[in-house]
């Protein structure tokens, strides 16, 4: 297996209890995959002690870089910052809340063979409350049907992809709907996907900031805009069905 360089990044919002272990696990597993790597954490305006934890990590580990958002700009904005800063051949990201095991990156890397552009995890069993499972399941099924996504679990933010695949694939949203936008645009661009099961663990620290009525409403609004622009583009003569760029100023859907 060719040892391509790897960028790992974590979007973080009030993840002081988990982000250090994620970074430590990443630094432990990366040398087995490549000699050239970087770890980036996007602190999306955390108001707990996340920044202090990150400052210490960066002091001890020179390969760890911190991106600081002065205020909470939303999960999508944190992903855009991470993708913009990543400089290696491959890019891997997962959430900073510790519900995925970074060490399973080795399973994704083993599947990134020639001809594969994206390896996406899917949750073997979702370790969340019943209400969140229900909402997440309905959202995922709707996204797969409306956007004809090539993966079964767009809500699983445990992804490894070639940086080259992001060229010309502009992601624009600031809410959680950015995951649908990302996967759909990569698919329309002709990227090949492979999936693998990954474990999903209970959240032991903090509380998810996404599943509130206001933030769910913002994500659904973005989701609807994406679908509308896709269908509008498909109706225009001589055009396919890419999702047009959505310019919006949603800054209230944090990571988690």
List the helices and strands and how they pair.
Blueprint: E1 6-12, H1 19-29, E2 37-44, H2 50-60, E3 64-69, H3 75-85, E4 90-94, H4 105-111, E5 118-123, H5 130-147, E6 158-162, H6 178-188, E7 193-198, H7 213-235
Parallel strand pairs: 1-2, 1-4, 2-3, 5-7
Antiparallel strand pairs: 4-6, 5-6
> Per the principal axes of the C-alpha atoms, what is the gross shape?
globular
Main-sheet strand order equals: 3-2-1-4-6-5-7
Please describe the biggest sheet, giving its number of strands, its sense, and whether it closes into a barrel.
Answer: 7 strands, mixed
What separation lies between the terminal Cα atoms? 33 Å
CATH architecture: Alpha-Beta Complex
What is the H/E order?
EHEHEHEHEHEHEH
What report would you give on this structure?
This protein is an alpha/beta fold and 256 residues long. Mean pLDDT is 86; it is low at 239-256. It has helices spanning 19-29, 50-60, 75-85, 105-111, 130-147, 178-188, 213-235; strands at 6-12, 37-44, 64-69, 90-94, 118-123, 158-162, 193-198. The chain is globular and about 55 Å long.
Question: Could you give a short description of this structure?
Answer:
By secondary structure, the chain is of the alpha/beta class. The protein has 7 helices and 7 strands; from the N terminus they run E-H-E-H-E-H-E-H-E-H-E-H-E-H.
Brief descriptors of the model:
256 residues, seven-stranded mixed beta sheet, Spore Coat Polysaccharide Biosynthesis Protein SpsA, Chain A, alpha/beta, disordered C terminus
């Amino acid at each position: 297996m060719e040892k391509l360089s790897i960028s790992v990044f974590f979007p973080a919002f009030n993840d002081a209890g988990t982000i250090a272990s994620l970074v430590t696990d990443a630094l432990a597993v990366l040398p087995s995959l490549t000699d050239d790597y970087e770890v980036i954490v996007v602190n999306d305006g955390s108001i707990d002690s996340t920044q202090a934890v990150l400052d210490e990590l960066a002091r001890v580990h020179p390969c760890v870089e911190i991106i600081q958002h002065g205020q909470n700009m939303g999960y999508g904005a944190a992903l855009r910052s991470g993708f913009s800063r990543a400089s290696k051949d491959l890019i891997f990201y997962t959430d900073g809340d510790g519900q995925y095991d970074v060490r399973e990156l080795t399973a994704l890397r083993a599947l990134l063979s020639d001809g594969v552009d994206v390896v996406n995890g899917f949750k073997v069993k979702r370790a969340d409350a019943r209400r969140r499972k229900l909402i997440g399941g309905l959202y995922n099924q709707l996204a797969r049907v409306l956007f004809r996504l090539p993966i079964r679990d767009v809500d699983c933010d445990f992804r490894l992809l070639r940086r080259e695949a992001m060229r010309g694939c502009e992601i624009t949203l600031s809410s959680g709907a950015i995951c649908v936008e990302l996967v759909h645009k990569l698919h329309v661009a002709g990227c090949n996907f492979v999936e693998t099961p990954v474990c999903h663990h209970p959240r032991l620290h903090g509380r998810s900031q996404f599943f509130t009525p206001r933030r769910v409403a913002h994500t659904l609004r973005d989701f609807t805009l994406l679908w509308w622009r896709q269908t509008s583009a498909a109706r225009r003569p001589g055009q396919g069905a890419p999702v047009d760029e959505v310019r919006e100023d949603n800054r209230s859907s944090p990571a988690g």
